[in-house]
Amino acid sequence: MSISKESTEHIVKRVRILVKNMLIGGIQTLTLLDYPGKVACLVFTAGCNMRCGYCHNYEFVLPEKIKELQNDFIPEEKVFSFLETREGFLDGVAITGGEPTVHPDLPDFIRQIKKMGFLVKLDTNGTNPDMLKKLYDENLLDYVAMDIKASREKYDVITGAKLNFSDIERSKKLIQASGKDYEFRTTVVQGFHDEEEIDRIASFCEGARQYTLQNFRSVKVLDSAYKRRHGFSDAELQKLKKIAQKHVKKVLVLN
C-alpha cells in the first residue's frame, strides 16, 4: 500500500465527511492492560489524521475502510447502555482509535461517561492541543497516553502526514502540567528508532512520569512495506530503556 503525505487538515476533512457524528468502531468489553491499574473497557473511535505505516487499527483510520464498515459501527447510545450494565464492575473507560480528538463531539461523549461515574483514559497522538485543553479544563480526563512517534525531524516520515510539530509540543506541555496521570509512548521499529533517536525522543519528554517503549510487531499493518520490518530483541530493548532512563522518571518496555 502506498502512503501519501496528505495534510492533517485534508485527512480530517475527508474523515468528517464520512463520520458526521463520532462513530464507535468497536468495544473491547474488558481490559486489564489498557488503563494501568484499572479494570476497564476499551472503546475504539473511527477516523485519524495520521497514516503511520505500522498502525494495526487501520480499519478505523482509512476513510475508504470507514465508509465500508460504518454500517457496522456502534451508536453512542449502545455504548452507554453497555456501561450501565458494568457500573460497579468497571473502574473506567479507555478511549482509543483512530484518533479520538478529530471528533468535535468527543467532550459530549466523555461528559456522559463521567456522569455515569467512570474514570476516563484517552489515547491520543497529540495533534489537537485545543481539544486536549478543553477536556482538561472541564476535568474530563483522568489519564492520558500520548504517542510520541519520533523526533521532530522524522515525524512526517513516520506518520505519513504533514504535521505542525508545535501542536505536539503544546500537547506534551499540557499533559505534563495537568496534574493528572499520564504516559508518553513510542512504538519502536528497526530502521527508524536507533539509540540516538530514542535519546532525542526521551529528551523531548524530559522529566516525564512514564515513558513506554512499545515493540513493533508486523502481524497487522497499514503499509504492507512494514511487513518486512522488525522490532527489537529483548537485549536491544533494554539498551533503549537505559538511554531513555537518563531523561524520564520511569521507563516501561512492552514487548
Q: Quickly count the domains.
A: 1
Structural class: alpha/beta
Low-confidence stretches: 1-5
Major sheet size, sense and barrel closure: 8 strands, mixed
Bulk shape: globular
Strand order of the largest sheet: 2-3-4-5-6-8-9-10
Percent of residues in β-strands: 15-25%
Task: Provide mean pLDDT, rounded.
Answer: 91
Question: Helix proportion of residues, in percent?
Answer: 25-40%
CATH superfamily: Aldolase class I
**Radius of gyration from CA coordinates:** 17 Å
Highest-level CATH class: Alpha Beta
CATH architecture title: Alpha-Beta Barrel
Which assembly state applies to the chains in this document? Answer: single chain
Question: And the CATH topology?
Answer: TIM Barrel
Q: Helices and strands, in N-to-C order?
A: EHEEHHEHEHEHEHEHEHE
Give the number of DSSP strands: 10
Key structural traits:
255 residues; alpha/beta; TIM Barrel; two-stranded parallel sheet; 9 helices; 10 strands; 20% strand; globular
SSE blueprint:
Blueprint: E1 6-7, H1 8-18, E2 24-31, E3 40-45, H2 63-69, H3 76-84, E4 92-96, H4 106-115, E5 119-124, H5 129-137, E6 143-147, H6 155-159, E7 161-162, H7 165-177, E8 181-188, H8 195-204, E9 211-215, H9 234-244, E10 251-254
Parallel strand pairs: 1-7, 3-4, 4-5, 5-6, 6-8, 8-9, 9-10
Antiparallel strand pairs: 2-3
